[in-house]
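Team,

Forwarding the record for the chain on the shared tracking sheet. I've put the sequence and predicted structure together so nobody has to dig through attachments.
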Amino acid sequence: MCTIPNFAFGKVANRSVIQVFFPHMVGQYETRAIPVRDLEVIYDRCLRPLVCKHMQNMASHWPPSYSAAISLYCDKRGLIHEGSLDVPAHILDIFGQEYLQSLAALRPYFRDAYFVHEFRGWKASSVHDPGDALDRQLALDKFTDVLCMDKVDVQHWYIDVGLEFGHDNHVVTWRATSHETLLAHCLPSVDQDDIDSIVNRTTFHVDHMMHLKDLTGFRYAPGIKGRTDGVHYVQAYTTEKTTSYQLHEGLFTPLDPNSLLTTDNLKDLLGKVEEMSKIIFDCTADGDEFRKAQEGCACLEVRVAFSKALTALTTIPHNILHYCIVPLHAKSWWYVSTPQHLVMGKPDSMHELTQLTQVVQVVSSCCRAHGH
């Protein structure tokens, strides 16, 4: 779906986004970004007329045109600061239907547009005991309390269900040789021979931690192989990535080779590396008696149809868990992540660094000894 041109239509509560997708616009332009001239037509000849029709006096709160809205919400640097304009719940059904009908009449490539509802960042709001059926139901009810569930087709809505494993004062990671074991647990209907071959395919994406080949997560979309188990996506990762994970362009945005081509670019690159290093070193909580080192949890997630939300990935056998996860001392982990020039001259830091180097060597040996 990420290749289909779309834009955000609105939101529900604080963390859900309603997007409009235009399947007939695929290949219409060089990029999947929708041109300003199309956005202008959509607002001026579709959205605002519907607002005036169904919301009457409330329409006076909406900008009179697309160009007026851009001028209103853009700052001097060209960044958009969105306003908040509500569509009353009791007219959403008819409003949504007429919106799509009006789009189809505007341009041939606007036909067959559809809404996609996406909830993001709700993990903390749905924490529960996976072994307790009542607790699972209560967490799901809380998660969906902003939705009219009687209008939701649970076979065509999808939800990510996950298990998270943590240990106090540790960064918990995934053993690279455990990928087949985790896949077999999440896709029990797939033959082991198929599981073993999947991990060697280009569609199986491995995410290395600190460039260590023995500690890695993964991402995989099983396609038809997941049909029997109802699984559309599987991923294993570690939450220590939240220190540098950005959805927007920022300090941790991947750099391209142009960063090395000129002296000015190189100076800028070195400055960014220095700033990133300080942030990573801050995770050690070195010299701060009121903080402890940043921890990390190992997460295993599957994406399933909403109808399977209460039964998917409710447990994982202890013998599998014991083999698959590797807990490492958090302070030591972040010392290894930090460039050594920032820890030189700190005896405790260098001791931690030596300790974790030994631990990683032991882990590597264990991974090779127990490899499939």
